[in-house]
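Lecture notes, unit on protein representations.

Consider one protein chain, 263 amino acids long.
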Amino acid sequence: MIRLGAVAYLNARPLVHGLDRQPDRFSLRFDVPSKCAALLHDGSVDLGLIPSIEVTQRPDYRVVPNVAISSTGRVASVAVFADRPITAVRSIAVDSSSRTSVALLRVLCAQSFDIEPKFVTLPPDIKSMLTRCDAALLIGDAALFTDHDALGIEKTDLGEEWTAMTNLPFVWAFWAGRPGVIGPEDIVALTAARDAGVLASDAIATEFCEGDEDKVEVAVDYLRDNISFTLDDSARAGLKKFLEAAKDQRVVQVLPPVKYYEP
């Protein structure tokens, strides 16, 4: 049995669609992105749906080919919220749940926003974050379902900013693990789960939001329009550019090549 560690957010649900019905092949648990990475690093899971920057921490890791959580343009679920323009921000409260989003924000601050804010790690509660800092970085469902218009604040979408700067997709997460923990048949099963999940995205969104009609509408549009679940050549180019930029900003110290499992 292959132990899978997946992100608990809505955007991961199409990737794990039906995997719980294959108990002889997979066991599945859900956590925040940073916890998924930690479980993989310490060997508690065999394959983790980890934030993309985490692949730099273990040069021996392999990535499942052609399956990912990515976006081109507006992502909706990773954003900075503030009561002022992003160029006027001097401090940002960040959610520690994902190193990738924080790394991307550091890159954008340096290369696009031209600011050098202070970063303060806080729990992902937007009101308390904005009490402490000029702006708040939220990720996942917290970012997706926050109604910034009702709060009277601005939302700066990091996926949109990345694509505007690079003309490339951004890769948020992918399945990764140590060499030999999965074989070609397992890759086929993970890819098939992804394909089935994409086809069932409306039903997944409805079930995830537990009948909240306003949330369901947001979630359906999100899975249809904002998120992609492939790791094609363009996405790989975006991943490469991001990791290089993260190294330039000294977010990571080393930059091993991204390696993939053989299908």
